User: What shape does this take?
Amino acid sequence: MSELSTLYQTDYSAWATRHAELLRAGRYTELDIEHLLEELSDMSKSERRELESRLLILLAHLLKWEFQCQMLSERWREFDGRSWRATIVEQRKQLAVLLRQSPGLKSVLNEAIANTYPDAVDLASKETRLPPETFPAQCPYQATLLLDDDYYPD
Assistant: This one.
């Protein structure tokens, strides 16, 4: 086991700092390639998890906005969706920041929406106590609508 490989196991911060130094110096043959590839792969997975997590909350709240609103009738006027609106606004802002910082995620956005939608239906169903069949089988919101600050389903 190399010195850097051992350092990876014992002091991750020092390992990362050392790699930054080696990369800046162009000393590529000294890199701990195995762990470096693992870290780069994990970074991508982490960003993807954040994208899907934020989409899950946004989708669930848009579904609640669209489908539970009909059931609230008179009480809806009192409730007026302030907490849902706040969550929708927050998730859209965080998604915009994430996509600005990691523009490569735009290429997987539609796939992430499709993957996340069934879980959003499950969450919306549990929170509203509406049967899952209440919600569309496929996501009714295009990516552009999901990210549009002015879009709220009827």
Summary: Residues 82 and 88 are 10 Å apart (CA to CA).
